[in-house]
Amino acid sequence: MKREQKEDKILTAALRHFSHYGYRKTSLEEVARDCGMTTGNIYFYVKNKEDLYQKSVSRALLTWRDHAAKTIADEGELIERFKNMALASFDYVTTHQELRSLLQLDPDIFTISPGEDRFRDINLGAIQMIRAVLETGIAEGTFQPDMDLDGTADFIWSVYVMFLIRAYHKNEVDKNIRRIYERGIEVILRGLLHK
Predict the structure, then answer these.
(1) Would you say 112 and 161 are in contact if contact means Cβ atoms under 8 Å apart?
(2) Rounded to whole angstroms, how far apart are CA atoms 61 and 93?
């Protein structure tokens, strides 16, 4: 088995254990056993349990971000693509049990405060994706030309994170939180002012 395949196997098993048992109750020994390896083998790929956690969660977040990026790359009007990206990002967490469980066990995976964001590089990529959509909208005349791109992208990201926290950490999924989020996206896109 190639190195990349072994690393993939380890990170997949680690994500499964961390999402099921949490950080404190997961051991390197259990992950190694699940992979049919020794604990010593795991150390060829990670420094320690914290490193294993960071790498497995980072990989899950990159998969989530790639999923959102695919929806924005689809054909169609920019407004629809933006809405699809926003909703697909939210729904991805709903349909991927391991990521959802991680958010419930570790609410600091997503945080509104950049200084506390342990996955800032990945999340900056998501913010840059939003910024690129806004930039495209300005270039094609769909969005306001005098928009503060960085501030607006950060605001939209913060709204998204707040809804993830409400839905998955505060367990408000059954309280029509997706519908409220969807309406919020409409407000962002259309504004409040009657024109």
Answers:
(1) yes
(2) 10
Domains in the chain (CATH in brackets) are 56-190 (1.10.357.10)
Q: HEC profile for 123-181?
A: HHHHHHHHHHHHHHHHHCCCCCCCCCHHHHHHHHHHHHHHHHHHHHHCCCCCCCHHHHH
Taking each helix axis as running N to C, give the angle between helix 78-95 and helix 177-190, from 0 to 180 degrees, rounded to the nearest 10.
Answer: 160
Q: Which tokens go with 10?
A: 């380890």
pTM for the model stands at 0.88
User: pLDDT tens per residue, the chain (195 residues)?
Assistant: 788 999 999 999 999 999 999 999 999 999 999 999 999 999 999 999 999 999 999 999 999 999 998 888 877 899 998 999 999 999 998 889 999 899 888 888 888 787 888 999 999 999 999 999 999 999 999 999 999 999 999 999 999 988 888 887 776 666 688 899 999 999 999 888 776
